[in-house]
Batch of 3 targets.
Target 1
Amino acid sequence: MMKVKPIFDEALLDVYYTTQKLPKNAFELIYVDTESNDAIGPQRVIEQYCLKRVDAIFGIPYAYGLAPIARITPYWNKGVPVFTTSVKVEQFSNKQQFPLLTRLTETNALLGKLFVQMFNKYFKYDRVFYYFNEFEDPSTSIGKSDCYFTLNPIKNALSAMEKPVEFESMVFHEHSKDQAYLDEKHGQFLKRASFYARVIILCASPNTVREIMLAAHDLGMATSGEYVFINIDVSTGSHAEKPWLRSNDTTAENNEKAKKAYKALKTISLRRSDLREYQNFETRVKNRAESNYNYKAVTGKEYEMNNFISAFYDAVLLYAIALNETLKAGLDPRDGKVITSKMWNRKFKGITGEVSIDMNGDRYSDYSLLDLDEKQDKFVEVAYYSGSDNKLVKVSDFHWIGGKPPNDDPICGFV
């Protein structure tokens, strides 16, 4: 909650004074802690609605809490718009079920399209191995992890290609209490993967990806040039140029080993804006986090922005634009259906540049394909995918161990 408050503060200042879309104090912000709980969250939102305090809802960063809220708000008076900046699950594209839900984040379906183009153009492999984080208890009461929902459209898209890409997958629980057991498990599963495919697709937290790559180094898989690892890092909004580095690692040797392992790693990440305006905005938000909320003293760490937090700025601006147009047309500003109709299938200038919302209320996003450039000693963009154009554009050469990509099959075939 504390991370988003300075974003909303800055967004409202721009709405009132920079764009002048609405008069000062047009918004009253009410912050409610949903505790990331799919029972408590909807209940607390309903409580606010019963107090007649809800005209729009921003947030609900988890699918199981968002679903009931986005289903019921169309039936509240003339409807209440809902905005999310982080729920990417493909099922939320069904706007018959969620007619007033606008997503200011990328959707997982776009990742499937990206991978089809990657495998048609640059990664011409017949099989892949998925290795990803899943909840410890796979029961339906717990549900599925973000990684499951992220990878599922990729699996479906690659399997539906003219020449289908075969796959096998294994899961692990990255918050296992027995770290030694988990490290051993990574090694065992990577050995299994090595007998099935040359391409291993990962989805986990940055720390866990590092542990996996260290295990791959110990097995020789990350240094032989015979395997390529693809890390799907769209859930953290991270933009680390040196993701192998850990200041708290016990030895410099581990950092160096991790760096060698990362030469075999390609990363898919949300494309970051290099606009000076965005960088200035980031500075403004950090300053406000300290001056208004004493962020570092309270949390013990520096304020950091990511794509999901900054997208709240675009959500507020889009809502203000729609309200402005509704009022100018002499229509009811509390008619959620009218407001939503003015937000979909349009473009506007956001803090990261031009923002495109499709006719289904989902944001088109761009992705970067990154790999390690040894000369620059950092991860750099070698290609990017434009969601609105459905186009993968190469911007520099890929960096491969041994100067060439791995063969699709070993000389003697897979066992």
Target 2
Amino acid sequence: VVYVSHKLDEVFEIADTVTVLRDGRHISTKPIGEHSNDTLIQDMIGRRIDNLFPRQRGAAGGKVALSVEKLSTARKLDEVSFEARAGEVLGFFGLMGAGRTELAKAIVGYDPITAGTISVDGQRLTPHDTRTGVRLGIGLLTEDRKSEGLMGELPVFQNASLASLGAFARMGFIDTAKEHRAVQDYVDRFRIKTPSLFQQVKNLSGGNQQKVLIS
């Protein structure tokens, strides 16, 4: 039986021998008893995982970058207020249906607001729409990239440039050479594994699809 999985607990429970493939190459084949979680992950990602998320002190505390005051929408949200400062990572959590997704979509301009204000670096989002949000540096990484974030049939370069086509437009036409250079820079910086910029994004691995979405 050949069992393919990313779930390590299942691998340790089921397998007698484990083979690791990375980027189309054979990395190792060992009896499962010779592996620990850490050594198996190291073979999978190609590096040690010590101190993967080191605590960084003093990163936050800068000026207010995003201010939301008494934000309300027709769906879910009722007078939500918070601030996020430069250098700060602010997380929201809750049960399904608690309004986390609706809050993100309202901030980016996807869902219309009925009351309240959103400001970026002291500049109020007016009008409150996605175009203004993008101009002020607001982006949304959707939780459902296949139906809301990416267009699977289109190539990597078109998916990566969708949110900023205006940067490549000249007299109403897209400067494709400039677009390709910019996307190639993203591919290099984010180490997106793709045969070319013209590969359909649906054919990439899930992790590389996510990198395209981030870029």
Target 3
Amino acid sequence: MVDLPAADLLQDEIKNTRILIVNWKSYRQSQMISEEDFEFINAFDSEKNEINKQQILDRYGKNAAKALTNLIGQIARDQTVRYLLTMVDDILTMNKENIMIFHEHAVTLGQQAWTPFVTLLSRPDKFICNQAARISAKLATFGKLRFSSAESDGYLSWIRGQLTPHNAEWLTATTSALMIMLRAQCYRKPIVEHGIVDQLMEVLATRNQGFQLQYQVVCCFWLISFTCADELFKKQIMVPVCDVLRQTEKQKVSRICLAVFRNLIENCNSDKARDICSSLIGCKAQKSIQVLTEKQLEDEEMEEDLKIVVAKLSEVEQNLSSFEEFCSEVNSGRLSWSPVHTNNKFWRENAQRLVEKDYKILRRLTHILETDQNTECLSVGCHDLGEFVTHYPRGRQVIDEISAKQTVMQLMAHQDQTVRYNALIAVQKMMVNNWAILGRQIGVN
């Protein structure tokens, strides 16, 4: 796991940028900007009252957008470009209808309103890139016009390039732009198809994300779940969202997690609703949800989501067999010492079922042992493979076939004593028949 800083660097930089003082007269005197553009920017930047600012925008109309985009394109100094981009973002935040002046100006140039901002995504200055991405998303979402397929692909490729550990300080800014874009239904499926959901899951798998980044990533899942719930279920996004719900102390994060669960249950194909609930049960979601039911919530929507999710989980849990519960837990990747693992009757009755579907559950257990770092997961996984070998006649052959024995043997050198112990016991169970056969062969000879 990688540690990520909790700060929202973009917002910090925006605060610092807003207090800058730009000498527009010097730009005009050096003839770097036109008289018309100077008149607007000087009047608008000098005014501090928001109502008066809006009146200036209304008076200049598309010429205000013309001035701003001209200045951004003509001025090379990063600090001034940062200031102008922050100004544009504030204009769009102040009144969503302000996007019209940018679209009207773009028509006169025969281009799209977001074109001058998308071109800034390749700038080396991260603040400029992220502010431009935020503005582009607003221009392509708030109004009626949308990115073309090619424009969407280019923008989403940039987003993909930002959702990486080396860009940790700017992840909150990137997911904020993505949230804006996801408000428009037409972008949700392309975002899934570009593999961005997988990257968001990786972000949640890192440590110390900060609650705001957690909220924004889960909010992205929530927005996607209105249109692509089946795809989210296939990717098992319930697992990292359950982890967030278990860890968070922030009500707004808990609320968005519950909203995701409800959307998945209600928006997936009806035949998958039970599987989703089963997966949530496997992730031990009920424990975290039970904590919420005991709190005094003042959010009516959250209370409604909570009631619906609790009711659905209870309904499924009552009819869930011990084997289904076991499979759900294994598929979630969150193994713990629940009673089913140490129940001899369970293993006697169900060991043979683990070879179904080309050893799917056994392969999943092996994958957990190869990739997970949680010591309880590793201990339980070793134990389960040992129990399978003990209770299934061909268990040792199967374990060899899927290369699980070598994985368990490597864990005998793990730094954690409990993992080493369970790996050792499992290996002994895997080897005992070999020793018995060898003993019989020696006796015959």
